[in-house]
Amino acid sequence: MSWNKDAAVSYLRSHALGCSHSECAKDALMKRILLSFVMLLVGCCSAANQERSAQDATESFYKSYLSVFGSDETRPYPADELRKYVSADTIARINAIQEISEQELIESDYFTYTQDYSREWIPALRVENARPFLNGEAVQVIEGAGNGRSIHLEVFLRREDDAWKIYRVRDVTNNHEHPIFDAGAITRAKAAAESTP
Fold first, then answer.
1. Strands 163-171, 136-146: pairing kind
2. Would you give per-residue pLDDT tens digits along the chain (197 residues)?
3. Rounded Cα gap, residues 125 and 62, in angstroms
4. Which of 104, 106, 186, 177 minimizes the C-alpha distance to 138?
5. Nearest to 84 by CA among 179, 23, 157, 165
6. 53-195 belongs to which CATH class?
7. What's the rounded Cα separation, in Å, for the pair 81 and 23?
8. Which of 13, 53, 72, 184 is most buried by a 10 A CB count?
9. Rounded distance, CA 123 to CA 113, Å?
10. pTM for this one?
């Protein structure tokens, strides 16, 4: 019988591990299959969770926001809550526009497209049909507007800081969008404000 280095190494490994070569091979194969299955399962769950969470984040925001906006007390929506749900860029744009004297770019509330809101209308809120849009999702929001009417909004979200954040809201019912992303309109509003005594 001749010396076979590979056979000797295989023999030593199998005895060091306490299993035969075929048992060790089967064990390693089972571990690989199990690991692959777990990785696939985690990947599927996180993808489904991201899709579900865009709609969930929108619903959470609107329920919370409408409760504050519809309150009889005049108080702003808490800044930390706003940062939790809304893109930092969108918040900065809204704040910059609101600092312009007598601006008419945002003539109603950015998130509801209304001048005021009643808590009685909150039960009519529906958040549905999240769909992929560019690098994020678009979610349909139907908010009550009193007298059996409703306003259909399209809310656009994308991932920021590992969370879904609202970056754009469009009024589908009235085919209108506040021009917070229109640099020309913002420049004209600033110029008009500066020229007014």
1. unpaired
2. 566 777 766 665 666 556 565 666 676 666 677 656 556 565 554 454 444 589 999 999 999 999 999 888 878 899 999 999 999 999 999 999 999 988 889 999 999 999 988 989 999 999 999 999 999 999 999 999 888 899 999 999 999 999 999 999 999 999 999 999 999 999 999 998 888 77
3. 8
4. 177
5. 165
6. alpha beta
7. 57
8. 53
9. 18
10. 0.71
For every residue of 91-129, DSSP letters joined together read: HHHHHHHHTSTT--S--S-TTTSSS---GGGGGG-EEEE
Where are the chain's structural domains?
A: 5-42, 53-195
Alpha carbons 131 and 134: distance in angstroms, whole number? 10
Tokens of 105: 């770019």
CB-CB neighbours of 69 under 10 Å: 20
